[in-house]
Design a protein that fits this description.
Layout: E1 2-3, H1 7-24, H2 29-35, E2 42-44, E3 61-62, E4 71-79, E5 82-89, E6 96-101, E7 108-114, E8 131-138, E9 141-149, E10 155-162, E11 170-171, E12 194-201, E13 207-214, E14 219-228, E15 231-241, E16 268-276, E17 279-286, E18 295-301, E19 321-323, H3 334-339, E20 347-354, E21 357-365, E22 378-387, E23 393-396, E24 403-404, H4 407-410, E25 413-414, E26 420-424, E27 426-427, E28 451-453, E29 456-477, E30 487-492, E31 498-503, H5 506-509, E32 510-511, E33 516-517, E34 522-542, E35 546-555
Antiparallel strand pairs: 1-2, 2-34, 3-24, 4-5, 5-6, 6-7, 8-9, 9-10, 10-11, 12-13, 13-14, 14-15, 16-17, 17-18, 18-19, 20-21, 21-22, 22-23, 25-35, 26-29, 27-28, 28-35, 29-34, 29-35, 30-31, 30-34, 32-33
């Protein structure tokens, strides 16, 4: 729905806002009075809801609708502006499919880019069960790492090669290895096999391979140096992460109980490495892929092969969570019942870049309510990865709602983080543009990371370093139901470029029966005709204390 500010609407707004501002003796009242005279064409996404979904410009925004890419265990390879998404092919996981996209709006499916049945190789003759492929390019050759059942039904790790990203892939055979008759990475350290291979290349060019090992006691993460893309130095084989344990040097004591919600054999799988500020972050998934508590956690080390230690505070929970559903395995716990219908099974991830922005790709259950103990349809989703002042990664997500696309795709980027912040009747205003959005409201210390607004009128101003062309704005709501903000009085970019009475998409993002806000949801506005602005002022009026998380301003 397109809104055009009329003279009558302006008059009503002036009477309402200015009377309140004068009572508050607010210094922003004069600028409001002088600038509210033109209006601007815009779409308030909350007003486009048709009872099923919101309408938005998909060249500027995205939604994880869990409809487009039916792949589990996704890995994204990027080349020449095209994104290749491979993963476990749930439609027929005896082969590997790939989806390609250039905009994350339209996707093309390429079926069976690797089919073991084409070759009379080491994989199981009738049921190879191919899992978790990852795609890389080294020296012009495309390598796809994967796990599959051998003829004894044991999962083994190997790699196939091709001349193009879309294959067709073939077993790797040369004077050093024969990937047709035997899996290339036949782990001599365990008879139980492995799965979920990932590759990391350090700054000095040294390659490492990480994967999950199945033992009698658990699934745990190991690492090994590679002498080439297909040769492991097994003398460097090291156990790195054990589920529940603080680190691998003390795997008996297991204080991280949330990594072991699954009854029976605990699971740590799907490793992925990212390096930040000279430290190595080993990220991995815990609990079963069928479980709604299938989450991404992390451990940190000063070297690629450890010792890796998980952040932990005594008595805390989910202290090493990176992405997921921070609940409990107690069936009637509040967070479990509230989050039902938001997201489920958000894990087995990868990191990839869209332009200069690092994203986290993962799969989620299409049935957002989840059904513990039963496999669900799994679909690709993605969200933003950021780093704090110490280089520690954090994710804003998993998301359910409208989010801004990265600059590479939309042409706009978030200009708010470098803005100067001024405010009135606001506490912790500096958190309004730090990239951090509270999405795990039940974790300790999160409430203090939000921006609190007092009763009456509150104002937040972002002053940019120059004038930018403005395309849209997202103002993220509180993660706490009791601090929900339903309306913003105005969003003023100056020179008459004003949005008034912006609405929160309550029907889409709030469950009143469970007193719950879906995390990482925002007021979102897109402008039909861009304009230039060097600042924005947000005015809120509330009868009770409310909170906000973040303001994202899309400029260029």
């Amino acid at each position: 729905m397109i809104k055009k500010i009329s003279i009558l609407m302006i008059a009503v707004m002036l009477l309402s806002v200015l009377s309140g501002c004068k009572k508050e003796e607010n210094k922003y009242s004069e600028s409001v009075e002088s600038n509210l005279f033109e209006g601007v064409d815009y779409i308030d996404h909350a007003l486009t809801y048709d009872g099923k979904e919101l309408t938005y410009d998909d060249s500027m925004w995205y939604v994880n609708n869990l409809k487009d890419v039916p792949l589990a265990d996704p890995h994204v390879y990027v080349e020449d502006g095209k994104y290749y998404i491979v993963g476990t092919t749930d439609r027929d996981n005896t082969v590997i499919d790939c989806y390609t996209t250039e905009d994350f709006v339209t996707y093309q499916r390429h079926m069976a880019i690797y089919d073991p049945d084409t070759f009379d190789g080491w994989e199981h003759d009738t049921d190879p069960q191919v899992f978790a492929p990852e795609l890389y390019c080294f020296d012009g050759v495309y390598y796809m790492y994967y796990s599959a059942h051998d003829k004894d039904g044991i999962r083994r790790n190997s790699v196939v090669v091709a001349d193009t990203p879309l294959g067709p892939y073939r077993p790797l055979q040369n004077d050093k290895v024969d990937g047709l008759t035997s899996p290339i990475f036949l782990d001599q350290n365990t008879r139980y096999g492995g799965l979920d291979v990932t590759i990391f290349v350090d700054d000095d060019g040294q390659m490492y391979m990480y994967y999950s090992v199945i033992s009698n006691e658990n699934q745990h993460i190991v690492g090994v140096k590679l002498n080439s893309p297909y040769e492991a130095d097994w003398s460097t084989y090291t156990s790195l992460v054990v589920p529940g344990a603080l680190n691998s040097t003390n795997s008996i004591l297991k204080p991280l109980s949330w990594e072991m919600f699954r009854e029976g054999k605990p699971i740590a799988e799907a490793p992925y490495i990212i390096k930040s500020n000279g430290k190595y972050y080993l990220t991995y998934s815990v609990n079963g892929c069928w479980d709604k508590f299938y989450n991404v956690c992390y451990a940190v080390s000063d070297s690629p092969l450890g010792n890796y230690t998980k952040p932990y505070q005594s008595g805390g929970t989910w202290t090493n969570l990176l992405l997921g559903y921070p609940g409990t395995n107690i069936g009637n716990a509040t967070v479990s019942s509230q989050w039902t219908g938001f997201n489920s099974g958000t894990a087995h991830h990868c990191f990839f870049k869209i332009g200069g922005q690092i994203m986290i790709g993962y799969h989620a259950h299409q049935n957002r309510a989840g059904n513990n103990g039963r496999y669900e349809e799994r679909y690709f989703a993605f969200d933003y990865l950021h780093f704090d002042e110490n280089g520690v990664p954090f994710c804003n997500g998993p998301t359910y709602s409208i989010q801004p696309l990265p600059e590479e795709l939309s042409g706009y980027y978030n200009i708010a983080p470098s803005a100067q912040v001024k405010s009135e009747n606001v506490t912790n205003a500096g958190a309004i543009n730090d990239n951090y959005i509270v999405d795990c409201y039940n974790l300790p210390g999160q409430e203090e990371k939000e921006v609190s607004l007092g009763t009456g009128y509150s104002f937040i101003e972002l002053k940019f370093d120059r004038a930018y062309e403005i395309g849209g704005i997202a103002i993220y709501n509180s993660a706490y139901y009791e601090k929900l903000l339903s309306e913003i009085v105005y969003i003023d970019f100056g020179n008459g470029n004003v949005v008034q009475y912006a609405q929160f998409a309550h029907d889409s993002y709030v469950n009143d029966a469970k007193e719950f806000i879906f995390p990482t949801s925002a007021f979102t506005i897109e402008f039909l005709n861009t304009f230039e602005a060097d600042h924005v002022v947000i005015c809120v009026k509330s009868d009770a204390a409310v909170a906000l998380n973040e303001i994202v301003v899309l400029g260029k």
